[in-house]
Design goal:
The structure is a single chain. The chain is mainly α. It has one domain. The protein has six helices and no strands. The longest helix is centred in the middle third of the chain and has 24 residues. The protein is globular, with a radius of gyration of 16 Å.
């Protein structure tokens, strides 16, 4: 599970880095619910938008690499959980909220971001990097 979620993060980060036209602006401007005002502020400020884009591209990539390799995997699980919970809160799948981008289905409350955040919580709680991953290089053997 750690490697699969890591691959998802790595793919999302690298695809954004490699696309010179990618920006988080469209996602932010389509935001609904409690963070819509913050999203509009970020999207309308070029400096904040540049920071948002950089953090998304490189944060996703680094979390992905870390999870795939099992290196600092507990910390990466927490950071990854933070990312997907922010995505969830900026665009929750609640009834009555309509988005201009195509959705992946109507789940009412649960979507892939919430599921991935819960899976990352399980990985944080039961870390496997010290068994199968580079974290084992940093743990003391008994």
């Amino acid at each position: 599970m750690r490697v699969l979620i890591g691959w998802h993060f790595l793919y999302e980060g690298v695809s954004k880095i490699l696309n010179p036209y990618w920006s988080s602006a469209a996602y932010l401007l389509d935001s609904k619910w409690i963070f819509s005002g913050l999203a509009e502020t970020i999207a309308s400020n070029p400096t904040l938008l540049t920071i948002s884009d950089f953090v998304n591209m490189w944060g996703l990539t680094l979390v992905g690499v870390s999870l795939v390799l099992g290196l600092f995997s507990r910390y990466s699980a927490l950071v990854g959980m933070g990312f997907v919970m922010l995505y969830y809160l900026f665009a929750p799948p609640f009834l009555g909220l309509e988005y201009s981008r195509p959705g992946e289905g109507s789940y009412i409350i649960v979507n892939k971001n919430l599921i991935e955040a819960c899976a990352l919580w399980v990985m944080y709680t039961f870390p496997t990097g010290h068994i199968i991953g580079l974290d084992r290089l940093f743990t003391k053997s008994n």
